[in-house]
Amino acid sequence: MKLLGIDIMGGDFAPREAVLGAMLALDSLPLDTRLLLIGDSATAHSIITDHGGDVSRFDYHHTTQVITMAENATRAFQQKPDSSIAAGFQLLADKRIHAFASAGNTGAMMVGAMLTVKNIPGLLRPAISSVLPKEDGSVGILLDVGINADCKPEMLVQFGILGSELARHVYSIANPRVGLMNLGEEEEKGNLLAKETHQLLKQSADLNFIGNVEGRDLFNDMADVIVCDGFTGNVILKQAESFYSLVQKRNVKDEYFERFNYENYGGTPILGINGNAIIAHGISKATAIKNMIMLASEVADANLCEKIKHVLSHSVPQ
Amino acid sequence: MKLLGIDIMGGDFAPREAVLGAMLALDSLPLDTRLLLIGDSATAHSIITDHGGDVSRFDYHHTTQVITMAENATRAFQQKPDSSIAAGFQLLADKRIHAFASAGNTGAMMVGAMLTVKNIPGLLRPAISSVLPKEDGSVGILLDVGINADCKPEMLVQFGILGSELARHVYSIANPRVGLMNLGEEEEKGNLLAKETHQLLKQSADLNFIGNVEGRDLFNDMADVIVCDGFTGNVILKQAESFYSLVQKRNVKDEYFERFNYENYGGTPILGINGNAIIAHGISKATAIKNMIMLASEVADANLCEKIKHVLSHSVPQ
Lengths: 318, 318
Hints:
2 copies of one chain form a homodimer. By secondary structure, chain A is of the alpha/beta class. In chain A, 41% of the residues lie in helices and 16% in strands. Chain A has a 6-stranded mixed β-sheet, sandwiched between helices. The first copy, chain A, has a 5-stranded mixed β-sheet with strand order 5-6-9-7-8, sandwiched between helices. The first copy, chain A, starts with a strand and ends with a helix.
């Protein structure tokens, strides 16, 4: 039996959309998977009942506090031990759930991860990723997309490992090709970070490094995993989101561009921590929450954090 | 009388497309403007004649050498003094032409600028820009887009000045709003470069700084000029180009997305040098070359380099 912890108080449209998303997910999850709804249980019950659901299909962990989207992450996490985020990470640390997923305050999720399950030994910094819809129907992984604004070359090499494990075990990409985001193909091109990172990636025995990629290669078949600092990744991600929004505003109907809808992807695992934690976009509605839960299920099935721990413990120090 | 020097040997499709572009431009230019075709004069004559043109409508500066697109820029510029690029910059330095435009080797153009007309006194580094098509029909300016991979905060402040002058005098944007590309709106967000730059921009009396912008704000009405390091700008530019190419591949017909076609914009001035020099995309065909020449004409009319020199000489040192 697998138990996934779901924060029903996190996100702009919580608890309603979070609970509705959990109801949607339940119909698609394997039979051996149950959902533990973390948050106000009475509210969860009434939302489920109001929408014709069966409250007994879920498990509940009642909490009394809520970390809001705008709150200072560190202070909120520490001052609200009975918040859904704090409770979720405690359950994860106690191994009472196989994964914890939330669309709540991303900063508080990161703080929660650091203070409870903590980084995998040897990891410099965790990362978060984004799924890139490829022209050929496949997907790629971009990381980091925002939690590490300033990076060292060694961090980007580890992002390559994190992204490769995610690609391999969750997106079923065998031997993922790792590309370094850069401003030119040639090895000697780049800013200081990219030039140093290129040399480390070339020497790395843990990765299938294919060289530099450029902004034009995000959606083609050049690489399966693209690494960059979190500043660059965040700009890329938001630019791609804005294109999707322009495509919608212009009323363009196209199945490929529809794959840019973040709702399809359910967010990202926090990569590199001792536990399977998933964060989703704060604006997630039921469909996005459902996909967050499906991702949590896949990450838990793969036991992604253990896979990453295994590779990091064997990776050649540089 | 205004004379614009056009490199007819530069670009992937030179000399043919360069000469055809010059022929197209001539029909749209003001009557007081003549084009000096720099390159192999006999070839220019035969292309013009073959296409029913009148060779006497142009002026010619014959050169015997060509810097190819892939050549090492510094070596090529120095070893080929009778190349079209070297000749063009010499004519510009001697003030025999009002602007020099080329779709040739960008590196050689930068080297040529540095070795002949040189940087404006007080400028840390020149920059190149890209035009952002806005949803509301207007345009914005993004810089730097690739020649300064590593930047200091003071450089980004100057990019704000360069971009504002370009916006004001070439794109007729009064009091251009300058935004800093960042990963969040809040002042304290960002990597080290963005955080330091934000503080300098806030204090700058020379700019209409409106704060941070994000990847999602490139095509909305938030800012007229967006400054970033050349690494980030290059990734943004190429990602936008790839979206345009995806829109074309998906056969989407939309007048807004058509504005992402680089051919419409004719390239960028090299901003911050003692002369009006324009560089265009190496893949430019006749239409793009025509627009490069139109841009050169506007930059020369505005005497952009003098405007920039004036502002820089009055800008408050930080």
